[in-house]
Design goal:
279 residues; 22% strand; 2 domains; 10 helices; Aldehyde Oxidoreductase, domain 3; TIM Barrel; alpha/beta
Amino acid sequence: MTPLGVDIERLLEEDAGFGDLTSEALGLAGQRGRIRFAARGGYVLAGVEIAAAMLARVGVTAEVARGSGARIADDETFLTGEGDAAALHLAWKPSQTLVEALSGVATAARALVDAVERVDANVRVACTRKSFPGGRRLSHLAVRAGGAILHRTGLAETVLVFAEHRAFCADESLAALAMRLRRAAPEKKIGVEVGRVAEACAAIAAGFDVVQLERFAPAAVAEVAGFAAGRDARPVIAAAGGVNAGNAADYVRAGATLIVTSAPYSAPPREVAVTIEAA
């Protein structure tokens, strides 16, 4: 099943909007062929359902052997198809490239999730909206395949106050700001990003539901978590900025209850081996 919101036509058109000159020159149309997608190296698979939909869009009968989120081994087949030889070549490269890119993101997300869950299975990794412009939908599908959740899919989803917002509310205390936000959006939890321990403690005292710690060292996170532990209503302590698979465990041990990151989006692609043969 193709994920909702993915424009299969656009993905194909980018590479073959004016046809395939090589296949046309060779007269491949009308011949039957098979295509096989397999992993080069082990990784977490993502985007295979979209690749299958791309094949189907050009008339190829596709079969998904392993779905997004699966941990696949080297040389493991995850997608096959059969159809017109010209159609196979039309969808070949864009579908391969898409799976390679999204699997890289999913694998990086899974590495972060594994690092966090080894310390505390209740702490989640949330990936931000800072994906490549125009590619957010695909990027979000990939991080979810890797076991992460979404931090914010867009500005209308959650209330999160940044320093850039507070620059226009300079005379308003965090407590007053929290009260105003609750009146404006009574059904939403409210969050604030802070840059210092004292500011984080003030946000907790003001009653914010989520306190996002921007580029705090683990020791500073521990200070904030210690202050929060003494409160009746404990907020979500979100560690953000500079968190990766190598240091995420330190932040969880320090008391972070949510890891916020955009690191998986810059992960290198994983390799997909594609073979095409006459049927």
